[in-house]
Amino acid sequence: MSISESINFMQKVSEKSTSIHTIIRLLLRELRREEGRHQAEVNQLLGRTTASWSKVEAGEADLNLDQLLTVCYVCNVQPWAVLQAARDYAELLNREGWYVAYHGVPLPKGDDMLSKEADAYYALLSKNPEVAYMHYQWRVLDAPRLDQRRDAILGVFRWIVDVHWRADVTAPRPPVPATPLIPPAVLERLTKMNEDE
User: Fold this and answer.
1) For 29-142, where are the E strands, in sequence order?
2) What domains can you pick out in the chain, each with its CATH number?
3) How far apart are CA 167 and CA 64, in angstroms?
């Protein structure tokens, strides 16, 4: 590989890089939400402050084994199922041209593009919660499928790999016109009846 090819490769890797730590963290966040559990429940079982688990979910603190096991317990799932789903999503990202680090410590949040993209997705959710439920017909731990429709992927990962869906959910929507409670034909008849009286 020439020097320019190496530089191009490194630029590509830095543009689309993440770690298995981030994938697991995002899956645990989605799993907790799917199960209707609150961050406070996780914090209570961990014996930590109210902000500690939210920092892990936001990528501001590292995920450790105790936390992984606790969230799995709270959500009534086996840890191996989370790790299997993380592997499946890592493979999906690899196929989409992402570099996923499987070793060492998590990437710093500023260098982890998946973490940055996930922040953008969750910011959108805070403004438009209905986006989370668009095409939401599968469970968090179901294996992702990438086909022509790309419809069997969790929203946070779909946000990253499906540019068409991302454009669709961020496109401005025209305001929905207020519809009268009474259909126009009935309203017209009532108006005419009132005029006749």
Assistant:
1) 99-101
2) 3-170 (1.10.260.40)
3) 35
Tens digit of pLDDT at every position of the chain (197 positions): 555 554 444 445 568 999 999 999 999 999 998 888 888 888 888 887 778 888 888 888 888 899 999 999 999 999 999 999 999 999 999 999 999 998 877 888 888 999 999 999 988 888 876 666 554 557 888 877 655 555 577 888 888 888 887 888 788 767 666 665 666 776 676 666 656 55
DSSP type of residue 17: E
SS3 179: coil
Residue 174's SS3 state is coil
Contact 82, 2 (CB under 8 A): no
Distance from the Cα of residue 160 to its chain's centroid:
9
CA distance 83 to 85: 5
Cα–Cα distance, 32 to 51 (Å, whole number): 16
Dihedral sign of CA atoms 83, 84, 89, 95 in order? positive
Count CB-CB contacts under 10 A for residue 56: 23
| CA atoms of 193 and 105, how far apart (whole Å) | 76
Q: What Å distances lie between residue 104 and 42, 66, 189, CA to CA?
A: 25, 18, 74
Q: Are 141 and 77 in contact (CB under 8 A)?
A: yes
The pLDDT, as a whole number, for residue 6 is 42
